[in-house]
Batch of 2 targets.
Target 1
Amino acid sequence: MALKLNTAYFLCYKLPSKSSHGIRSSAALMPSTLYTKTNRRQAHNNVEVTHSMPPEKIEIFESLEGWAQHNLLMHLKPVEKCWQPMDFLPEPESEGFYEQLQELRERCKELPDDYLVVLVGDMITEEALPSYHSLMNSTDGIRDETGASLNAWAIWTRGWTAEENRHGDLLNKYLYLSGRVDMKQIEKTIQYLIGSGMDVKLENNPYNGLIYTSFQERATFISHANTARVAKEHGDLKLAQICGIIAADEKRHETAYTKIVEKLFEIDPDNSILALAGMMKKKIKMPAHLMYDGQDDKIFEHFSAVAQKLGVYTAKDYAEILEFLIGKWGVEKLTGLSSEGRKAQDFVCGLPRKIRRLEDKAQARMRDKKAYTTVPFSWIFGRELRV
Ligand SMILES: [Fe+2]
Ligand SMILES: [Fe+2]
């Protein structure tokens, strides 16, 4: 059932019922002091599709609960075996605290501005965890119905969130102690971002949500592994260790999410390939794409450009992630698909090459035009970087 909803519906913030499919034309009115121009523009142009998974498919996720119990929860680490931020930070209760702090600040002196901007952007992305938790819990078939449900999907989402929470926490504290960045601007950016949410077109559909999260976990694994590499190049071995240990968590989460989607491809290949093609057609937006610092409407694009320039996360990584997922899920070898499914399969399998070709052309155009500009970043006290 497609449901068209009017503006009044949005103004009263009524939530759609669990089983309804909705297409919502969004001209939502948002308080101008809370949101970026990009955010407001997006709201005006937006058509929201919600609950796009046919209700009968819910049974698939109910029937997979036992599977999740045995095959998914094993990828969560018991709390007592997990690292905690304090394992990598100066100990405030210790007599050596000031000395440890001094050492940390000395190490951080060598970190260049472009690296700091990328690390801050990564940290802010991690700190918007409430949005990611909320998104998982608005996904049909896998949501936590009570907030403390003993359903395996719900246990997974809470455990995953609890593990993720350490990432932003550790990076935030480290950057604070470094004295190299404008923490108040960073805190404002986090507040803006959580207030804006994220709009990555998952349609409350678990096929979309689990594909998106598989992609993102691998993207964050690559990004944190690269910030570890660059920290090492600049001599901050502790920071390299921090970024490396976070990357290892992301890798474990990637294994878990890709395993779920692998199972979906096994039992429902047609719907899975259609969901993957659909997500790729919409393009995988980064979770922090609505980032704003109160000053720069394009701060997310500018942060991404610095990350690309530094080689921490690039358009080529995007293509490689897709290629990796295609291999992991055996997309090229799928058989018995509907004609729509086969078209989706062809589209997805041809996409990495297409993305690389477009990226090469875009890079060549940039080089020809020397189309670089410099922008100030509030996170580093307004110092300018080339993007
Ligand atoms: Fe994370
Ligand atoms: Fe993650």
Target 2
Amino acid sequence: MTSLPAGPHPVPVDVTLVPELNGLFAPTSTEHDLGDLEVVGELPAELDGVYLRNGPNPRFGPLGSYSYPLDGDGMVHAVRLGGGRAQYANRFVETPALRAEERAGHALWSGLMTMYMPDATEVSPELAGTRKDLPDINVVRHAGRTLALAESGTPFVLSDDLSTIGRETFGGSLPAGITAHPKIDPRTGEMLVFCYGFREPFLTWSVVGPDGAVRRTPTPVAGVERPTMIHDMAITDRFVVLIVAPYYFDIGAAMSGGSLLSWRPDEGTRIALIPRDGSGPRWFTTETFWCWHLANAYDDEDGSVVVDHVAYDAPDTQDGTEHEGDDPPRLARLRLDPRTGAVRTDRSSEWRVEFPRIDDRVLGRRHDRIATVAARTEGADWADTLVVTDPGSGREAHWSAPELAIGEPVFLGDPTDPDPDHGWWGSLAVDRTADLSWFLLLPAADPAGGPVARIRIPVRVPLGLHGAWLPTGP
Ligand SMILES: [Fe+2]
């Protein structure tokens, strides 16, 4: 992310007033290595690999402001499976700023919205006046590198034992960083990314080849004239798909004490289909909606592009406080026709959901199921239900566990079998009744039947964001 002007020196945040710093969210400063975890049920023998999940976990009490989910240090949690056994470990993502704060014994940088950066009286000359890296959103593996990802910032490479190797700029080709939600094409092995910025060009896209070298350097997306918040993307065989809602960065307002982000619902939401061959984007405009996460997109046989996503009336609902008249976030399907410019939107489910995921082995191609999590209990602070929806047929299954806070589902495929019924939905869940967590494995063929295995993690893993299953082997 490009740098912002510095604000005044901030005061500590009263953490008792921030829900996302308490309860199931409360950060931990302990790094564990726990072997031979208890398994209730039976671990599928086919599964050999590691599940990784990232999430905001501030090492020290925040200064000035704390904006969930962007602020906070990254902490990556790992559940290793193999040989019928399970292990757990967690590590901070050790950025230069976090190391400086560890040396100081307290926070030196403010939260994102406060815009304070320490000067050379507080930190080394190389760090003075820089923004803090925030690789706390997601984690992926590409070209043999495990990347802890920030929101439009440079990723950090992690070793197999989760120690931080260092900043990844892709040979200097992507110095401004990438989205926290890159998409890895299982057909080509390419990693497609975008990056927004506060200065022109406000939005670019790039391609990293399967060898880890940049194939397409940052390419401006024509038609984006303002700094705009965009969190996720999708790909198809033909297109990069970006949903561009009217949610703008307003640095002038932030500098005078207002909000850094401005929602303009009267402007409509636009969707860009950017041909992967490098030709100019095709824009579509719909009624205004906000989207944090896309599930997947694909090119349909009739020439249209299908985009499954979670649609909000406005971005404010991300914190669970729905505004009067706002619908809750729901799974929706856009059908875009590049020949006619026509757009159709259909609601795919009545569940209020987030964290949509598919079997990543068909990413960019037709999928027949999307897993999400939903809060079934009225007023719940987090999801207690896993929902699997087929937007094509309307088929839906769910499994609820009121005693658990269930995190993003990730598909663990049987490496010997591409059949999507022969896999498992894995999810890291926090126990609401005890100071411990569970890694759940629900069979893809019958998620409503509940987990076939529950791995007991004898510590509380703070609620977090996104993750990935990384099978062992080529
Ligand atoms: Fe996200």
